[in-house]
Specification:
The protein has seven helices and eleven strands. By secondary structure, the protein is an alpha+beta fold. The termini are far apart.
Length: 321
């Protein structure tokens, strides 16, 4: 140090901690725990896709990471908050004709596993069909969901909510297409609001934010979208950030539609207790490697697990809640 006399030899008293890292799927992953408990590499299916078939962005979210996670794993809000008012709208959102919107309020099924859980929203469509959308929650902060690209490709997509401090987190947004390469238009993420047109590529801060009321447009809200805010994930950030930096959960009224959130809290609490006792928490194995997320309209009597999630073995389900 320039302000220390040479004879003090102060530099030999200062040490930095190093952590093992790996690069997978365009993200640098770090392990911060005890060496003897280091898990296998995080080889999610999307991290094994060719570079041309996958895409990752990131954005700072100004709230506690758990608020972001809980909003992300909640399926019941999506066809309400993210809906378009007309099929002709070109903005990001879900069209009224989509069965995800046309279906009634969902029944949630949560299959607890050794990596977290699979959950599904089952929505009645008339007398004979149901719309089913499955998701995966991989402990402690990774969501996998079905999606579509800007050009209409079927995707697996998801988010990772990584804490920065108690009141901020970095959200990694990833997507991949198993069937072909993504286009340049797909990588702009116009509909989601995560690409370079919506997020500063140097600071990773969203152009639409608290300070400008998330660029809410009342005319758009009246004529095109439920929220009047452009970008599906911008809408998510607006709701999650406006709850306050750390939400007061003592004022909540959770119901059956919040089953995935309730179960996530139980698993996270248990993981903390497990680590405190010197054990290995859920989500540190390899059973999540092949996981996908799916969506379909099926007959009411169909075996939706067998048809939609063939890569997930029934014996892997520890409990259904």
């Amino acid at each position: 140090m320039m302000n220390e006399p040479e004879e003090n030899d102060f530099k030999h008293k200062v040490r930095l901690t190093a952590y093992p890292t790996c690069e997978l799927g365009g993200i640098v992953w770090a392990y911060l725990g005890p060496v003897e408990h280091m898990p296998p590499l995080p080889k999610f299916a999307w991290t094994q896709a060719p570079e041309s078939h996958s895409h990752v962005t990131k954005v700072i979210q100004e709230c506690n990471w758990l608020q972001g996670l809980e909003g992300g794993i909640d399926t019941s809000h999506a066809p309400i908050m993210h809906r378009l008012l007309t099929d002709s709208s070109k903005r990001g959102g879900i069209k009224p004709s989509n069965p995800f919107v046309r279906g009634k309020a969902p029944t949630l099924v949560v299959d607890v596993t050794d990596y977290g859980y699979q959950y599904a929203g089952i929505r009645p469509l008339g007398e004979s069909e149901v719309h089913i959308r499955t998701y995966q929650f991989v402990m402690p902060f990774h969501q996998i969901r079905p999606s579509k690209s800007e050009s209409g490709l079927n995707l697996d997509a998801g988010h990772i909510w990584v804490p920065i401090d108690d009141e901020n987190c970095m959200v990694y947004n990833w997507s991949y297409c198993p069937d072909g390469p993504l286009t340049d238009e797909d990588k702009l993420e116009r509909g989601l609001g995560n690409g370079p047109m919506h997020v500063d590529p140097k600071t990773f801060r969203s152009a639409a934010n608290r300070a400008n009321n998330y660029m809410l447009d009342r005319l758009v809200q009246k004529t095109e979208t439920y929220t009047g805010i452009d970008g599906i994930n911008v809408q998510d950030r607006a709701i999650q950030e406006s709850m306050g930096r750390i939400c007061d959960r003592s004022k909540e009224h959770l119901g059956p539609a919040d089953k995935a959130i309730i179960q996530a809290r139980k698993l996270l609490r248990q993981a903390v207790k497990t680590v405190e006792a010197g054990g290995t928490p859920d989500g540190t194995g390899t059973s999540y490697y092949p996981l996908r997320a799916h969506e379909a309209v099926l007959p009411r009597a169909a075996d939706w697990r067998g048809e939609l999630v063939p890569e997930m073995k029934q014996e892997a389900i520890l409990q259904t809640v």
